[in-house]
Task: structure prediction
Amino acid sequence: MTLSPILEAEALGKHVAAATEELDILAGVSFSLAAGASLAIVGASGSGKSTLLSLLAGLDTPTRGTVKLAGESLGALDEDGRARLRGRAAGFVFQSFQLLPELTALENAMLPLELAGRHDAETVAGSWLDRVGLGNRKHHTPRTLSGGEQQRVALARAFAPGPQILFADEPTGSLDTHTGERIADLLFELNASTGTTLVLVTHDEKLAARCSARLRLAAGQVIEQVGV
Amino acid sequence: MRAVATLAWRQFLRGLRAGEHRTLIAALAVTIAALTAVGLFAGRVNGLLNSEANNLLAADAVVSADHPLPAHFAASARQRGLTLAHTQSFSSMAAAGDDAVLASVKALDGPYPLRGTLLLATAQGERAARAAPRPGEVWIDDRLAARLRLKVGDTLRLGTLQQRIGALIVREPDLALEFSGLQPRLIMNATDLPRSGLIGFGSRIRYRLLVAGDANAVTAWRGTTEARLDRGERLENVRESQPQVRRALERAETFLRLVTLLAATLAGTAVLLAARRYSTRQADAVALFVTLGATRARIRGLLFIELALIFVLAALLGGAVGWVTQEALSWLIRDSLPKALPAPTPLPWLAACALGLTLLAGVAGPTLMQLARTPPARVLRRELSAPPRLWLSLSATLIAACAVFYWVAGSAKLALLVAGGIAGALVVAGLLGWLLLKGMSRFARGFAARIALRQLARRSWLSAAQLGALAIGLLGLWLLTAVERDLLSAWEQRLPADAPNVFAFNIQPDQAQAFQTTIAADGVSGAVLQPMIRGRWQTHNGKPVEPKRYDDDRAKRLSEREFNLSWGEMLRADNRLTTGAPLADSGWSVEVGLAETLGIQVGDTLGFDVGGTPIAARVVNLRTVEWDSFRVNFFVVGTGPMFADAPTSLITSFHLPPGRDNAMAQWSRAYPNVTFIDVAQVLNEVRRVLGLSASVLRLVFVFCLAAGIVVLLAALETSAPERRREAAILRALGAHSRQIAAIQWWEGALIGATAGLVAGLAAAVTGWAVGTQVLGLTVAINWLLPLYSTAAGLALAALVTVWERRQLARSSALALIRDPG
Result:
C-alpha cells in the first residue's frame, strides 16, 4: 500500500536582495514525503536548511515554487490560512527550545491546545509531560530546568495537540552528546508511537541516519536526495 | 472569541505572576496616579480658592437683576437646601441738618452675610453682623459719618424716614459687587423700604438673591439658574468684578495646569519606554503563537484583551495611589488652609484614566501593533522582527500628544509653547547626537571611547530613542524646577508687603499738593497721582455702540457702563505693549482683555462722550495690565492734548501702613470730596490665593520630581539589556571590569551630557516663554540651567554606570549572554 504524500515541494526557491545583487539562498528543491515517514535535511551551516524548513512549514514564503502541506497548497493560503493549517496539522521543536520563560512547564505545553480552544488542555499537556518524564517538574519555569528538560517540555508541547507532521530544527543542537542522544531517542520513540511524520533539520549525521529519507543541501542546492 | 478571551486572561495572570507586565503596569499606574493626584488635589484647592474668593460676594453664588427676581430662583435654591438672602441696592440722598450726601444704600432681609464678615463698630466695640439692622436703624460707613458729621446713636434722614445710626461699617464683604462702591455706604432693613418713599416707578435698583451651602448643590443651582436667566438678569462673578482676584485665580490655575502638563509629559515618556520594553519581551511569544497556529486577528485580540486587563489593573492601582497621595498632600497643607478642602470627586480619576488610555493608544499603540506583526520565522532566527512603521508611530504619537496637551493645558498657547519646547529639544538632541557621533568617531582616542561610540552608532535608533526620552525627562524636571524657582517667586514678588491697599478718587488738581502732604504725614510714601475722567463709550468705527450687538454678557455690560479714562504718553511701569506703537499726539491705548471682549483692534476709531464733549481717536496700541499689582490702571488711556479742556480729577493708590486705621476717617473729613476705598480685603484674598497656590505647587512639584526621576532611570535602562549583553561578550573575550565600566561610562556620559545640555537649553527658553507669554510675569532666561543640566546628565550616567557595574559583578558572563533581561 502506498501512503499519500503529506508534504510536497516543487521547484522551491528563495532569493533575497543583497546590497549589490540578488542572492539565491535556496533553489530547485523538489520532493514528496509520505505520511508517517521521517526526513532529515542535512548540510553545513549556511547551506539553507533552516530556510527550507521555514518554507515547508509556511513560516516564510518562497520566491519560486510551491509547497503542499497536508493536502493544502501553502501558496494559495494567506498568512492566517497558513497559521490555521499549522495549528491543525503541525508541531514544532526548535534548537533553542522557544519556551516562554514566564510560563511553567505545564503552561508551555498547554499553549497550542489553548490556542486550539481545547478544554482538556491541562489534562492532555499534563499526561504528555508525564510521558516525557517530567511529571514532577510540571510547575517549574524554564529558568529552573536543564537544557535537556527544556527540550522535553518542547517535545511534550509539540506532540500534545496530535500533529500529523512534526518539524524539528536542530532539536539536539543545544545539548551535550549524551543528553542529545536521549532526546533523539525520545523524539523517534514518540514519532513511531503516534505515527507522526517527522521533518528534521540537523547537521548530525548519526541523527540523520535514523531517518527514512534524506535531503542534503550545499549552498542552497540539493546535492543528495534519498528516499524522497 | 471566548477561547481568545480565556487565553488572554490566563496569559495576563501568568505575565502578572512572572513580573512580565510589571514595567508597563508601573508606568501606566504612575501616569494615572500622578494625574489623579494632581487633578484631585488641584481641583479641591481650586474649589476652596473659588469658594474663599466668594467671600467677596458675601455668598457662594449671587443672581441679580434690574427688576424684582422671579420666585423660581429662590424656590430652586430652597429645594436644594441652600441658605438664602435678598438684598436691594440703589443710590439715594442721605441727609442730616443742612448736609445731604448721595449714598449707596443696601436694604437687607434675613441673614447676612452668608459668607465673609460684615464688621461693625458700635459704642461697645467691634462685632460681626449676622443679619440686617433692626427696623428703624441703619449702619453707615466712616465717609458718610464724616460728611454728615454724625456718630453712632444720631439720626439721619433717608427719604421720608428718620433712621437711627446703630453702628459704623468697618468692613463689608461684598464691596466688590458694588459699582457704586465709590459712594459712601449705608445699610438698612428692607422692611423699612415701603414707607421710605425711596422706591418708585423708574428707580434704579439692583435686586440680588444670595445663596450659600453645599458646594455641589451650589454648582447645580448655578447651572439651572444660568439656563433660566432672562433679560436684565445675571449671575454675579467675583472674577469679573475683581480683576485682581480673577488674575490671581487664573494664574493659580495656569500654574497647576502647567505642572499637570509636565507630569503628563513625563508619564507619556515612561509609557512609551515601558511599551517598547514590553513589546521586545513579547515578540518571541507572538512569533511562537503564530507558529503554533494563531491568526493575526487572534494575536491582535489576545494583545488587545491582555493590554486592556493591564490597563484596568493600572487604572485601579493608579487611582488608589493617586487618591492616597492627594489625601497625603491635603494633610500636609492642612495648617495653611482657611477651612477644609471640598470633598474630592472621581472625575479627575476618570480624566486621568482617559489620558492614560490616550497615551497608551497613541504613544504605545504603534509599537504594540508592530508586535502583532512579528514574523513567525523569528522562532528560527531571533533577529527577525516586524519592520517599524515610522510614519504611523510618529503621527499617532503626535496626535496623542496634541490631544493630551490641549486637554490638560486648556489653552492652545500653553500647549503650543510646551509642545514646541519638547519638539525643539528632540530636534536639537537628534542633531547634536548625530554630530557628536560623527565628530567623535573621527577624533576619539582610547579603547573605551572608541568601543562606546561604535556601540552607540550600531544601535543608532535605540540610542536616539534613549537620548530623546532622557532629554524629555530632564526637560520636564527642569521646567518643573523653573516653575517652582523662577516663575512662582516672580509671582510672589508681585505682591510685596507694601502693595497698595487704599485707592483715593476724585482728588481735585488744586488739592494735589496738600493731599500728598497729608497722607505723607501718616506714613504714606510714593503715591503717584494720575488724571482720571469719566467717559461714556459712544462710537466704534463711526457706528453707535449698542449693547444688543454683543452676544457676550460682559461685553454688553461694558458697553453700557461709563469708563474711567486717563492720559499719559508714557507707558506705565506695570503695563506692556502687545500690539501697535507707543502713544504720541493723539490716540487710544486699550487693555488687551477689554479689546478682545469688545472686538476692538489697533486702527479702530473709538469715540467717548466726556462731560458732553465728544472725543474720538484711533486705537494706537493694545497693552497688558498687571491688575493684581493693585496700582492704579485704566482700560483705556489717551493723550494729554485730547483732554485739554476737559474737567479732570486725580486718582492714586498707596499702601497705608498697619496701625493707621483711623487715618482714612480723618482724611475723609479733611477732603470731603475725595473717596477712599479700602482694598485690603481684596488684597488679602489675592494673597491667600497666592500663598495657598504656592504651598500646593511646591508639594505637587516634589511629587512630580519623584515621578520624573523614575522616568529618567527608566530611560537610561532602555538599552540596558543590549549593553549588558555587549558587556558580557566583552568580558567573555577577556575585558576586565574597569575597561567595561569605562566603556559604559563613555556611553552614558555621551547620552547624558547631550540630553542634559539640550534639556537645559529647552527648559530655559520654554520656561521664559511660558512665564512671560502665558503667566504674564517678568522673568529672565536662566542661562545657567543648561550648565547645571549637563552636569546632572553626567551625574545620572555615572549613577547608572555604578549600578550596572554592580549588577554585572553579580552575574556570570554566560547568564548575561543567554538572558540579558
Notes: Chain A is about 35% helix and 30% strand. Strands of chain A lie at 5-17, 22-34, 38-43, 64-69, 72-73, 90-93, 165-169, 197-202, 213-218, 221-226. The first strand of chain A starts at residue 5 and ends at 17. Helices of chain A lie at 49-56, 79-89, 105-115, 121-131, 147-159, 177-194, 205-209.
